[in-house]
Amino acid sequence: MAGLLRAGLLAGALCLPTTLPAAAAAAGSGTAVAVVVNGTVITTGDIAKRAAFLKLQRQNPSGAREQMIDEALKRAEVLRLQQSVSTEEVDAAVQRFAAGNKLSIAQLSQVLSQAGVGLDHFKAFVAVSMSWPRAVRVRFGSGGGRLSNEELVRRMQENGGTKPVTTEYFLQQVIFVVPAAKRNAIIGKRQAEANASRASYPGCDDAKTFAATMRDVSIRNLGRMMVQEIPEDWRPLVEKAGDGKTTATRVTEKGVEYLGICKKRQVSDDLAAEVVFRAEDLGKQKGGEDPNSVKYMEELRKRAQIVTK
Q1: pLDDT in tens, 9-49
Q2: Phi-psi category of residue 167: left, alpha or beta, with phi > 0 → left and psi -120 to 50 → alpha
Q3: Model pTM score
Q4: Which residues, including other chains, have CB under 8 Å from residue 306's CB and lie 6 or more apart?
Q5: Count of beta carbons in the 10 Å neighbourhood of residue 12
Q6: How many angstroms separate the CA atoms of 178 and 306, rounded?
């Protein structure tokens, strides 16, 4: 599922119809128990909605049951590890998706309902898709296995004896902090303040002085990151931002954030080569899905009690 997001789901990759047969709206209305996963019930209605959702993605709807089982396992693990994204992050992602399809949220909700999916089912899918990579990083770490010197040399020889070139960023995180107890009341105001502040962002060297002029604003230097190492929810925003500029804002569990681009340059050294080769390896497996995610799911399925009704 996370792979679907990487492929651009929230950038507008669904095949959204303009008209649908009336029968489509009835999809997912059943409530009989279909599967029980570690005590969590999946109904025939849940599976019907996922089948309708797969059709929108032009995928085989026969995989709906297995997808819902995987999603139940992922959701439980995300909650166990306390790695769930916030409701605001999900809402913001869905808003971006709707905007990418030139729809309002109300229009998107209507289209999804007519297709037999529903906005709530879509949001549940998005929430797990965004949260699961966090759980994988907790379980396996963020970097994956290091390449040996011998492997690095071999890969460079396969590349014609040259080291690959990638983009290196030095990033700074600007956080407009929102206390959990006040989140619903002030998140909109804080996002407006964060958006307004971007025009006055003085650059990384003077950012702490800049933050001191505002209330509850935190600055964190993230240091050197290759483009392949930037979290996927931030990467498109960073790539759009110019050197010395800021990204657009995002609502996160901390509050409202944006990133400052301290420096951007093209690099071709051993570290860059290793990062590029690791990213290539990930892209070759499971259509771009992280092999650690695949391994994690295999572990969860082996331990799970899955009862089909």
Answers
A1: 443 445 554 443 333 333 444 579 999 999 999 999 999 99
A2: beta
A3: 0.57
A4: 35, 36, 37, 38, 69
A5: 15
A6: 40
